[in-house]
Amino acid sequence: MNSHHEMKVLPTTIRLAAVWSLVCLLGGCAPKSEAPGGAVQLRFSCLGAKQESDLANALARAFEAKHPEIKISVEPVAGMGYDIKLIMQSAAGTLPDIVFLADSLVPTFTKYPVVRDLRPFIRSDRTFPINDIYPQMLRTGMDKEGRIFQLPRELGVVVMFYNRTLFRRAGLPDPPPNWTRKDFLRMAKKLTLRDEKGRVTQYGFWAGYTWCGVYAPWVASEGGRVVTADGRSAAFSSPESLKGLRDLIGLVTVQKVAMPPNRSITIPGVDPFAAGRIAMQPQVFPQVPFYRATMKDGDWDVQVMPAGSVKRVTNMGAAGYGMSTNTKHPREAWEFLKFIVSHEGQRVLAKAGSGIPCLKSMAKDPCWRKPGRSPKNYDAFIKSVEFGMGWEDFLILTRAEVQDAVNQAFEKAFLGAPVDQAFKEADEKINKVLRESDRSD
């Protein structure tokens, strides 16, 4: 559920292929892999953001305490070029031993290649808890052949955050677990307030409308798909998909109960949910620490996403870690990866603020459930696993050119263009990109 593709000078496949070819010609030198005192030195790559480097360091230090014969150096990659740097290191033979991954990075990192298949390690290690990992999370690191390139570090699922205080002011109870989008719309109308001049002072809903974690399940809950079942074509313009898109966009343009994109009714830079200016928004667990710090306990909670006319659907995804193709220490690297998904490693991640453990046996663990702290309804995160759509169902949406086409369609629709027309054009653009990609491959 992350995007790491910001450079758009060239189409993604051409840009990455050019980098790969260049570095293959230049070559490189791998750093030494032995630490002082004869200990094995593992290099661990992560994103440059402080939260990510803090997580990586917490894992490394906890692992070293149990394995003094192995030392781990954390290598944050600053800026937005994480994928490019690791592809260059792969071509030069200088990759770290362990690398940060996310569902959206797996296809790129297996193509060039940055990471290796972990199935052989899993098969030969009877102590590995593969049956305890949420299978939906394990699939985020798999390819079509069933090879596993990423071990998830968390359970990533989208739920509806809601402001309980605003609900009570509107005379509304908490949304129930069996609520539907009709219930949601009724609530959103009551939660949208205007001043004497008709200006909206509080919206019932807001979302990152162009985030696939919002629009893909919104479409699927009406029986549609954003990608055909074979994963080779866009399907935004099917009748069922358009129904879901019209419903979502119409919350802004027709019902006027949702805050328009790129508009804030609070001070710039202030979170409108924390400020009490929107009553509901889809979000993920890593947002919880921020709301605990900025809102009072009891003022807010979470619930499973409302059901559409066909079914209840939510988005699922995961970040995680993989073993590089260049590592000279696969046994030690595997021990570190196995530690990350152990109960101890998952508690280290939870304490550092990562999210919900990826192990089913830790669904009730107090490392991530905090009695007396919001949210109260922790079970909504676990219950939502039943309604999650597979990451493979919209994998092509991680491509920059595809997401550009989707963004343009949403922009046109929010500005008044017919939704059907905007997304038919999006399908045409996306399918052209996919055809050209197939030819280049």
Protein topology:
Blueprint (H helix, E strand, L loop, with lengths): L11 H15 L13 E8 L2 H17 L3 E8 L4 H11 L5 E5 L3 H6 L7 H6 L10 H5 L11 E2 L3 E2 L1 E5 H6 L11 H10 L2 E2 L5 E3 L9 H9 L18 H15 L26 E4 L4 H7 L5 E4 L10 E4 L1 E5 L6 H11 L2 H9 L27 H5 L4 E2 L10 H15 L4 H22 L1
Helix pairs in contact: 1-3, 9-10, 15-16
3D structure, described in words:
The strands form four sheets. Strands 2-1-3-12-4 form a five-stranded mixed beta sheet, with helices on one face. Mean pLDDT is 90; it is low at 1-29. The protein folds into two domains: 30-155 and 319-367, Periplasmic binding protein-like II (D-Maltodextrin-Binding Protein, domain 2, 3-Layer(aba) Sandwich); 158-316 and 391-440, Periplasmic binding protein-like II (D-Maltodextrin-Binding Protein, domain 2, 3-Layer(aba) Sandwich), CATH 3.40.190.10. The protein contains 16 helices and 13 strands. The protein is 38% helix and 12% strand. The protein is globular, with a radius of gyration of 23 Å.
CATH homologous superfamily title of the largest domain = Periplasmic binding protein-like II
First and last CA, distance: 25 Å
Task: Label the structural class.
Answer: alpha/beta
Helix segment tally? 16
Computed CA radius of gyration, to the nearest angstrom: 23 Å
Strand proportion, as a percent range, falls in: 5-15%
Helical amount among residues, as a percent range? 25-40%
Count of strand segments:
13
Low-confidence stretches: 1-29
Main sheet attributes: strand count, strand direction, barrel closure: 5 strands, mixed
Give the helices and strands as they follow along the chain: HEHEHEHHHEEEHHEEHHEHEEEHHHEHH
The backbone outline, from C-alpha atoms, is globular
CATH architecture of the largest domain: 3-Layer(aba) Sandwich
Count of domains: 2
Q: Quote the average pLDDT.
A: 90
- How is the quaternary structure best described? single chain
CATH fold field value of the largest domain: D-Maltodextrin-Binding Protein, domain 2
Strand arrangement across the biggest beta sheet: 2-1-3-12-4
Under CATH at level 1, the class of the largest domain stands as: Alpha Beta
